[in-house]
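User: My instructor asked us to take a sequence, write out its structure as tokens, and then describe one feature of it. I'm not sure where to start. Here is the sequence I was given:
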Amino acid sequence: MTKYCNSLTSYSRFKTHEVKVGKLIIGGENPIRVQSMTITDTMDTLATVEESIRMIKKGCELVRITAPSRKQAENLENIKEELHKRGYTTPIVADIHFTPNAAEIAAKIVEKVRINPGNYADKKKFEEINYTDESYKEEIKRIREKFIPLIKICKKYKTAMRIGTNHGSLSDRILSRYGDTPKGMVESAMEFLRICQEENYHDIILSMKASNTRVMVHAYRLLVHEMIKNKMTYPLHLGVTEAGEGADGRIKSAVGIGALLADGIGDTIRVSLTEAPEFEMPVANNLLAHFNNIEHHDPIQKIKKNPLNPFEYSKRISNKVQNIGGENPPVILANFSEKEKITPATLFALGYKYSVPLDKWHISEMATDYLFVGDNNLNFETPGTLGIIYNYNSWKKHKKGFPMLSVNEYLSEIEKSSKMNIINICFSNLNTQLINKLKSDKNAVIFLDSLNKNTVAEIRRVFVRLINNDLNTPVIINGKYKNLSHEQLQLSASTNLGALLLDGLGDGICIHAPNCTSNQKVNSLAFGILQATRTRISKTEYISCPSCGRTLFDLQSTTAKIRNVTDHLKGVKIGIMGCIVNGPGEMADADYGYVGTGPGKINLYKEKTVVKKNVPEEDAVDALIDLIKEHGDWVEKK
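Assistant: Let's start with the prediction itself. The structure tokens for your sequence are:
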């Protein structure tokens, strides 16, 4: 049994029980709540209050504040009192790492405490320990003794709790038994959840956050699967941790959070950006807006046999046609079929720049693979790496490039390309005759459309039918959008295409977005979605935590500085963390780490190993470059 949501074809939210956080109710039939976290020093009461108010005015329904020590936990009372004086009763969440006594203080003051089961009762040493069943039970007994006092306080003061697992900060105990896996993440929360249940305490919200969108989505699905098996109904908080800044942070968050929301999972969300926290709420609300009225979507045929494994990534097996399918990474197709005229300058937006003096094309790392031009007649030589696709009748006249055919054209006895034929298909015209013809055609590629409001479910349903019919024709997924803002396009396309790519579905994508944004931004978005789903790496990846009161340097300016000198290092992953809490553990799978260790001091990591300690901040970026060079991952910027 692989059930992790109510239905794969009919949208409805997974039913959870209600948890009160002050006057706010999370779960049940209540709206999905939006939250964020302050970046001020918790001991600076007025600065934290002012920032909280800015967040609340932008739509923040829960304000999370770090409380890493007793004195900061105690100061939450002053912050709460000042907010109340100013007329704000938005509930406060105390964020706790490492310090049980701080959690116990905070639980008497604020409406909710967040604990990380990976470090609440453990100090991480990255040690592998061979536990017997008996020694493992002893470890659970030790945790129980440290954890029960907090549970009793929460019960007495009616304080809610989030048990928030992070992929990169699993305890050595969990890593030793389950490895660095979604299963380990789920079990990390379950260890603490079982103790809560034994104490008859259920005002709990769960989360499974990771910077890797695949790990994050698989962990949440596995968690819901476990809850269904055990008849649990705890509300879920969704988030991609260390998503980053700008477009990358928005795309990555939408891919991970959106994939789960599309299946009805989630009761509260946070979009974690390396930006001022008040910028997170509009993004979160725009992401939720993508799902407005989705429950009223057109009916989709039920899945009787689901061949997809929702808990592990596995790419669908497909034929190789040209450079599409097989072992190739997903291609990107740009749709310029509605343009009146296409010139060499038009291709600049797609990563191709023509040099007149040299009579050569310069091709960037993010150059589109295919261009659909419709009935346009190109009167110039196009780059050899760019495949041109024409409407069938135009292709028939000159036999250049590749044809795009309707289903009727494909099924008729007309001349076709001997190299590649692209067939525009949607679920309604995927019939037995078409399936049988495609099975014997090694030159066919499906260009898959959906006009259903529940795009993810309908396109997934098509893939299920293809797989169950042993049809390995490669598929390019066509995302259709119009008249959206640039940010809304980012979020909607990342949700729809990202959710499918995370399930290993799709040999290519197309974003057709008239009257939304520039062609260059659409192209960048397509590459960003592939990067966020880790299906095609075309640039440096930054794992950057959102600022908070623990941060020991200016994350935004530092991230910008590091990006400026490293953004050409294709495939290298750099973690930029404000403090040790979001340090070696939270980076999870970064190649290099830049971590605040004290005021003006930086530790540099190679993967999870610290290699340079207490580097002065003014020298740290140069030291990071030297470290990358030392390990052979540096190339000079062109």
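For the description part of your assignment, you could build on this observation: The first helix runs from residue 45 to 57. Try explaining in your own words what that tells you about the chain.
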